[in-house]
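Input sequence (352 aa), recorded before submission:
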Amino acid sequence: MKNATLRQLKVFESVARHLSFTRAAEELHLTQPAVSTQVKELEGHAGLPLFEQLGRKIYLTQGGAEMLHHSRAIIQRFREAEEAMQQLKGISGGKLNVAVISAGDYFFPRLLAEFARRHPGMILNLTVHNREELLHRLADNMTDLAIMVRPPEDMDTVNEPFAPHPYVIVAAAGHPLAAKKRIPISVLAREPFLAREKGSDTRASMARGFARWLTKLNIAMELKSTETIKQAVIAGMGIAFLSAHTVTLERQVGSLVVLDVQGFPLMLNWYVVHRKHKRLPPVASAFKDFLMQEGTSLIEEITHFSTQPGMRSRSPAEGSVRGDRNPKRASGKPEQRAPKSKTANRGSRARS
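Predicted structure, token format:
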């Protein structure tokens, strides 16, 4: 094993975690043959097969399970060494590791760009994931900060809301409901819905917004991609429940409209999350403060969707959902209420 490399261990750990060479290749931004080569070289150093294939699935061998245990320990020690070095570099020379839920990639790069403009010399590492992958990265200490809608309660994490997150009902510009006002939920229930898959953050938020009406909706199709849903709605295949922050461009060009539905927008929160006992590098602490102070105003500027002061949004689930307020907002506008928590969340919440 003396000739094994850290790269081989990282590739092997990714394949073992996903039990898929394809998903590991996607995560590591490598080709599948390159991943296979790294694993075969590690198997050569170990002198044992690390995986076995039964049918179309792969499984860890006994040697593979033992290798995974030691690989993760070695990778963790390297991370700790890197974090110690980052602590000494401060903000300008530091490396910011941040992971974001998929709905956030529509605006988050511009937040990072603004932060980087103020702190030249820093290194950025942004990754985008679904909820399950994001929780894995938190649990495995693969990211300093995670940006999400529904923080975990089964991990010892600190979860802080930094900006409102509105959800809306969208339709094609020529849809018959586009010109209607105060549309009742009962009318929407007759329309075909294009929905995100069960287990996604968006689907969980949809369940919260529609409550008892959810089972009465005509869900015509479930899709794993927000982009696919938007294109299908534009094509006239139905309407959709989506984050307002994901439809900025389509609203600007007029291909999608936000329907005026009773109880919407549904106002939730964007959260910045990290492990409770995580020693945040100076650059990560500075970025967290940046989000808490300016996240709301910058996101509104980027997405052109204003969470109006004092907005109250009645939903079948809660009677009313109040627009969230970031108490550190620096936009100069009147603030909106938001739950404020700087304590760790414990418990268990569904994946997103």
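Checked by second reader. DSSP finds eleven helices and 14 strands in the chain.
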